[in-house]
Write a structure and sequence with these properties.
The complex is a heterodimer.
Chain A (H helix, E strand, L loop, with lengths): L1 E5 L2 E3 L5 E2 L5 E2 L5 E3 L1 H17 L2 E8 L6 H8 L5 E6 L8 H15 L4 E5 L10 H9 L2 E12 L2 E7 L3 E8 L2 E5 L11 H7 L4 E4 L13 E7 L9 E4 L3 H15 L1
Parallel strand pairs in A: 1-6, 1-8, 6-7, 7-13, 8-12, 9-12
Antiparallel strand pairs in A: 2-5, 3-4, 9-10, 10-11
Helix pairs in contact in A: 2-5, 3-4
Chain B lengths: L3 E7 L3 H14 E8 L3 H9 L4 E4 L13 H11 L3 E4 L3 H14 L3 E11 L2 E8 L4 E7 L4 E5 L16 E4 L10 E7 L12 E5 L9 H11 L2 E4 L1 H6 L20 E5 L5 H4 L7 E6 L12 E4 L2 H15 L1
Parallel strand pairs in B: 1-2, 1-4, 2-3, 3-9, 4-8, 5-8, 11-12, 11-13, 13-14, 14-15
Antiparallel strand pairs in B: 5-6, 6-7
The structure holds flavin-adenine dinucleotide.
């Protein structure tokens, strides 16, 4: 069983600063592995541990991917090797360019039975890459998977939708996006982190994948923080009956 | 407002279909709906205002709606609508992605606003957990977007139009996933998006049993109960359908009453469209107070019972 888990490196959301002109600054943002993708990596590692097989991790993006702490970060969670596609052209890749690059990388890596993605990226959360990747690779493909059981050459999976849970039979090879409740990602030990530094990393750029012509299919016109709604801000302090009575007077005509 | 020529809509549920048809009317000269089910369902869609209904028929047992991606993809390539509006459900997003990949384009998800500027389709949607709105446009003959709930409202009366119904022949996909069983989820039937009043509970509650106090107050003021994400996904005290925010429900109520909620941006983007926001929190520095109309700094365990009895006494 060959498994590939895909992940995205994203800016730490706490470090994003809204500037005076309502634009966002990432200047001080640390980079990290998208939190939803940790579930995909964990799901892949567990299958490989339980059934035997080989799990690799794969990410495409710009220079922050080369950060050695991030490389160790993903490898310390269990994958045996890492593939990266690093290219400045991928800095603000849209879902199409990302899926296209992942598809090309997976074809180059070779035989693969199962590809796992997180539910959405930690930054834009478009929930698109898994679906687009599956279609581009012409594989069976599904999202929202909250439970996986392997049976011979198929996967029996539960898919959580808004009002129902579907039990699915997914033929392999397949591309599957998993939800955050599928597992609890492990916390790597010091030993895991040290061992991660010795695992193989293969790095390509877009021309190595013959994708130098690839382009985004969307154009960003602006990204601005929303204007603040004016609020009355009548805030009281205290827990005495008097203060609560006052709060009640303030909101009575709205509530009753 | 200027319009494009052809807008297509794709939805699993009829209420979403009606909304998207109404949106399609605003944005396009001609609206076509992709519809599954009986002929009656197709006729209903025509009554929602679709000029044309592409009737896909009823799926066989075990067949997933996703299997229609090939059929719809071929139809898109042939008819080349300018815009495809898709219901933002998990299934809708998945199908949108596969259709886009088939057409060699991208998808813009959870549109909060769609405008047509000199024939160009511009779509606004939230990014970075609610920190910003991004305006974006897609290249390619057909723009595909999923539309956030409540962006379009259904007109009070149905148009009763006589849209043409076109039967579409099913094309077997090369690969497919089989549905063995469907289980319904308990407690899933809430519609927070439509609620006029919502009372949100957060980590300020120490025990699940204490939520009763909030439920009592909600009952007194006729509010639906919602929550912050950790209540639904951390401690699992409430169904996931009840959590509010960027990855949960997006509200537009008259009143949002936040109890024991800190007011982080990922939560507040789901609540800050409320006309009035009321907050109870014991931390004076909690960000929720910056965004509230009325508030009280204090222990919810002391405040809730007194407030409930005041409301009872004054009703
Ligand atoms: C990518 C991403 C997506 C997210 N999406 C969502 C989302 O969709 N929805 C969402 O809600 N969150 C979301 N979050 C999480 C969000 O950032 C916050 O962590 C979460 O909303 C906090 O929930 P809370 O306010 O209940 O808890 P806390 O932040 O722990 O706040 C609890 C509050 O209760 C107050 N309190 C404690 N005891 C009492 C008392 N006795 N009386 C009165 N007040 C008391 C405290 O002062 C505190 O302010 C997301 C986070 C990330 C990173």
């Amino acid at each position: 069983m060959n498994i590939i888990a895909c992940y995205k490196v994203v800016p730490e959301e706490q470090d994003i600063v809204v500037l005076q002109d309502r634009s966002l600054s990432f200047a001080r943002a640390e980079w990290k592995i998208g939190q939803y993708d940790l579930n995909a990596v964990e799901a892949g590692v567990r299958i490989a541990e339980d059934l035997g097989g080989r799990i690799s991790a794969l990410s495409v993006g710009a220079q922050p991917l080369e950060n050695s702490k991030l490389k160790k970060g993903v490898l310390s969670r269990g994958p045996e090797e890492l593939y990266l596609v690093v290219d400045s052209k991928l800095e603000n890749a849209d879902t199409h360019l990302t899926a296209q690059t992942l598809a090309a990388a997976i074809r180059k890596i070779g035989a693969c039975d199962l590809i796992l993605c997180g539910e959405g990226s930690g930054d834009l959360y478009a929930q698109q890459v898994g679906a687009q990747l599956g279609e581009l690779l012409n594989l069976s493909c599904i999202n929202g998977i909250s439970k996986i059981t392997l049976q011979d050459n198929t996967i029996i999976a539960e898919r959580t939708l808004e009002n129902e849970v579907e039990v699915l039979e997914i033929p392999l090879p397949a591309v599957i996006s998993v939800t955050t409740d599928i597992n609890l990602p492990r916390i790597p030990s010091m030993k895991n982190i040290l061992a991660a530094g010795k695992k193989p990393v293969t790095q390509w750029d877009l021309s190595a994948l013959e994708l130098q012509q690839a382009e985004n299919k969307t154009q960003v016109l602006s990204t601005l923080a929303p204007e603040q709604v004016e609020r009355k801000q009548l805030i009281l302090e205290g827990e005495s009956e008097e203060v609560i009575q006052k709060l009640f007077e303030n909101i009575r005509k709205e509530l009753l | 407002m200027s319009q494009v020529k052809k807008v297509w809509v794709l939805a699993e549920k009829t209420d979403a279909l009606a909304q998207l048809c109404a949106g399609g009317r605003q944005l396009g000269e001609e609206v076509a709906a992709l519809v599954w089910g009986s002929r009656e369902e197709a006729e209903k869609a025509a009554a929602y205002g679709a000029d044309k209904v592409y009737w896909l028929g009823s799926p066989d047992q075990g067949r997933m709606l996703e299997d229609y991606t090939t059929t719809i993809g071929e139809l898109l390539k042939k008819e080349i609508p300018d815009l495809l509006l898709v219901q933002p459900s998990r299934r809708g997003k998945h199908m949108a992605g596969r259709l886009a990949a088939g057409l060699g384009t991208s998808v813009i998800v959870d549109a909060a606003e769609i405008t047509i500027v000199q024939g160009d389709i511009q779509i606004k949607h939230m990014v970075y957990g609610g920190a910003a709105f991004r305006e974006e446009r897609a290249f390619g003959p057909t723009t595909i977007t999923t539309v956030g709930p409540g962006v379009f409202s259904v007109p009070a009366e149905e148009r009763g139009s006589h849209g043409e119904i076109v039967e579409v022949e099913f094309r077997e996909p090369a690969v497919s996933v089989k549905c063995l069983e469907k289980k319904s989820k308990a407690g899933a039937e809430v519609n927070l998006n439509a609620a006029k009043r919502v009372l949100g509970v957060g980590r300020g509650f120490a025990e699940q049993a204490d939520l009763k106090m909030a439920e009592e107050l909600a009952g007194l003021i006729g509010a639906e109960v919602g929550c912050s994400r950790p209540i639904a996904e951390g401690v699992n005290w409430m169904a996931r359908e009840r959590y509010i925010g960027v990855s949960g429900a997006m509200l537009k109520p008259e009143i949002y009453f936040a109890v024991g909620i800190s007011g982080q941006v990922q939560h507040m983007v789901g609540a800050n469209q409320a006309k009035t926001i009321i907050a109870i929190n014991k931390d004076k520095a909690a960000p929720i107070f910056q965004q509230a109309d009325y508030g009280i700094v204090g222990d919810l365990y002391k405040i809730l019972p007194v407030l409930s009895s005041l409301i009872k006494a004054n009703r």
